[in-house]
């Protein structure tokens, strides 16, 4: 039986911007190997697989190389697909059971809001060769349970950074968030996210990274609500509301492709 795949650009209201994700609402359970093969075939930063449960959906995320514990843009894309493809009524809360616990998504006009856990961080020494591979000087270096978080002196440095991805792939690092306070309105801070250890040189817009960025900039800017910009080549906007141990991440999404998987 053919399986439908929907490709969505997340954290954008315009096609071919933001972060593309494939979403597969499964008609029956599938093996881990099958899901990993489909993610490799799609060759996007994330492919999301959903399976209906009594009070929500079981949700898993795969890069072309590995399964991951938390992904923002593919969760946003999944909620968008559930509403636009008729799996949920418009306005109904989307409930996802994941490796990171229960996550929810709600609608407010054309924005989707994800309720995600805050990701704590702590100061560390940078792994040998990390800053050299990034080609930047760090103001601060921190580590979450997932990734390194590096603050640099200006958004110009974030935007102009040209990492040595071959060298990064040789380091024991899953992902790297590079961030700076913005230099003017409308944004509060900018960032980029590199994940060569997960098979993705640069992720265009990374919702999960903002689970650490919101409290990080909340402490420094003494505020809880932000407009953030991820300064990849595609770019994307995120509205954030830091609520202690939770971060509300809001973005927009647009369907760009619908296909049938025949095998």
Structure keywords:
Diaminopimelate Epimerase, Chain A, domain 1, 18 strands, 263 residues, alpha+beta, 6 helices
List the helices and strands and how they pair.
Layout: E1 3-10, E2 19-25, H1 32-42, E3 46-53, E4 56-62, E5 67-68, H2 72-84, E6 94-98, E7 101-108, E8 111-117, E9 122-123, H3 130-134, E10 140-143, E11 148-151, H4 155-160, H5 165-169, E12 176-181, E13 189-195, E14 200-203, H6 210-221, E15 225-230, E16 236-243, E17 246-251, E18 253-261
Parallel strand pairs: 2-3, 4-6, 11-12, 13-15
Antiparallel strand pairs: 1-2, 1-18, 3-4, 4-5, 6-7, 7-8, 8-17, 9-10, 10-11, 12-13, 13-14, 15-16, 16-17
Please describe what this structure looks like:
With 263 residues, the protein is α+β, with helices and mostly antiparallel strands. It has two domains: 3-116 and 250-261, Diaminopimelate Epimerase, Chain A, domain 1, CATH 3.10.310.10; 122-244, Diaminopimelate Epimerase, Chain A, domain 1. Helix content is 20%, strand content 41%. It has helices spanning 32-42, 72-84, 130-134, 155-160, 165-169, 210-221, and strands spanning 3-10, 19-25, 46-53, 56-62, 67-68, 94-98, 101-108, 111-117, 122-123, 140-143, 148-151, 176-181, 189-195, 200-203, 225-230, 236-243, 246-251, 253-261. The chain has an 18-stranded mixed β-sheet that branches. The longest helix has 13 residues, at 72-84. It is globular. The protein starts with a strand and ends with a strand. The mean pLDDT is 96.
